[in-house]
Each structure stands twice: as structure tokens, then as C-alpha cells.
């Protein structure tokens, strides 16, 4: 497994990388920078070395040039420390190509890097099916305080960096046309919001997230078929709700279905179903609804002869009571769903009596994850 971490300045990239190293046996990989000022420095330091002298300095405005000098002064201290650390590491590479070649030959081992300088390098990494991109961000004021704390030890020096200076530095790091990190962050599979000030709490939360779950790289059969059900839902023509369904036997798709009006009738989304378009409440006016449910469509497509023993129905929403009795009658053995519905209890009772297994698929957390909301990841 190869994890790449990108993000804003002082958001916690190195901290998360260190968590992977110390708790999960990863090895940290680096790309060496030939610049004498920033050799071994972090990605934001490298970005500053290239872009730090701004147009403001050329126009007689001194703030950004002052910030450039300040950052290099502070960064030189960090760079010396990091350079010494990296010199003790075996895994330092001159180019991203060399790093990737090294990992590819050892892809079953665990590797992490915080050196993703641009989208071209990211494109190269993402071609490998064992690569996972993680981004980390934090509020500007939190990152500013971390920047001050990281850069010096005295109270006077801590207060020397103004918020306007830091905003300019942060904007360059995120939005620079060549080396800006925002395009990389937008492509991350897992996006952390890290406001934590307690390292132990941060590590505990990361431990709950199961970042190394194989599903993140190659979906399990459950995740795969549920993704197909969600894709089928995109074809729904119902104007109130999108639902998709897949019927599977022996890990092969028998049929798919989505909700909407029957063939030959005007689509619900175009006014074809009066009940849906009148915006009646849940459970009201069902007798006049012209929309077939996703499960009904999938079962009609499959037919009882094709279902037989061992069939599994995947639906992105838990089936309603009406669909549940049809699922039982056709002979489905197991129902897997993703999202709850208002009739889950009644549906579960029907399946329990009929001997149909019902379970909810809970995939590993992805998208934007607030690391301070640890109660959500148990």
C-alpha cells in the first residue's frame, strides 16, 4: 500500500504520516530537493523557495519579501532538522519517478509520502492501484498558530508573523498555478479536517477510521455490487427519490433496476406520476403512485427462474414493506442495503419470519472527515 498525503500549510501532513509510521509499520519516502535553502524541507517550503518573492516586492511593497525572508529564516531551522532526519533515512529519491519505481517493486509493503509537488506527479502515482491519496486541512487561524509555534520558541518571535502575511503564504501554497496544492486536495479519496491540538486524541481518532481498509483500494464484493446499485439509481426518473437495485447470484449480476414510471408512460420527473408531483408525504397516496420501485424492476427483469437459491439483492435504500413481501416470494436469500428507510422495522420483521437475511453495509469512512468528531467513527 502506498499512501500520499497532501494539504495546506501546518494542517498536519507530517503528523499523520508519522502516525502511519509508528502505528502501522509504514516507511516514509521523500523526494530530495536540490535547493540549498530548502533541501529536505516540506512541500510548502519548496513552494515558497520557488514562488516566495512576489510582485508586491517588485512594486515597492515590502511585506511579502519580508515574509519570504522570514519564512526562509524560520524554514532554515526546520530544514536543517528535517535534512538531518532525512539523511538518516534510506528512502530519499532524486525524482518522483525513482520513488514510484522503488515502491512498485515492493508494493506489498507499506509506504507513505508527503512529497507530491504537483498534479503531474499525482497522475503518475494514481496509475498504481495500490495508491491512496489523503488530504488534510485545518482552519486558517489554527494553522497560523501552529506555524508560529513550529517556527520559534520565544513569545516575541511567535507573534512576529501577522495573519496577512500567513494568508499570502497559504494562498501561494494552495492556489499557485504550477505548484498549488488545492487541485491535489480536491482529488483525495479521504479528506481530513484536523483541528486537533492533542496528539493522543488525534491518533486515537485515526485508529477508528480504519484507513488501511482494503476496500479503499479494491472494493469488496459487497461494496462493488452496492456501487452498481448506486449507479443504477442515477437512471431513476422519479422526482422524489433515487433508488437503485442489483440482483446477484454466484457473484454475477442477474438484473438491475431503478425506480420510476413503467415503460411507455411519461417519466415521473416530467410530471408522469401525479402522486409524486403533488409532493404528498411519505406513506400517503401510495395507491395512486405510478412509479415502480427499484426492487420491483429488478425482480421483474430477473424472474423467479433466474433468481433461484443463493440470490442476493443489493439496494442502496432498505426495501419498503411492499417490496419486502415480493422479495420473499421470488426466493431471494439475502438483502443488503446502504441507507435506512422509514419502514426498516416492518421490513426486518417480514424478512426474519421468512428466513431472509437482512444486513446494512457500512463502508469505511471517506470524503470529508472531521477528526474532532470521534464519536462518529466507532
Automatic annotation (TrEMBL):
InterPro entries: APOBEC/CMP_deaminase_Zn-bd, CMP_dCMP_dom, Cytidine_deaminase-like, dCMP_deaminase-rel, Deoxycytidylate_deaminase_dom, P-loop_NTPase. PANTHER family: DEOXYCYTIDYLATE DEAMINASE, DEOXYCYTIDYLATE DEAMINASE-RELATED. This is Deoxycytidylate deaminase. Its EC number is 3.5.4.12. One of its GO terms (biological process) is nucleotide biosynthetic process. GO terms for molecular function: dCMP deaminase activity; zinc ion binding. One of its GO terms (cellular component) is cytoplasm. Belongs to the cytidine and deoxycytidylate deaminase family. Residues 41-64 are annotated as: Disordered. It comes from the Eukaryota. Its cofactor is Zn(2+). Residues 220-358 form the CMP/dCMP-type deaminase domain. It is an enzyme of class 3 (hydrolase).
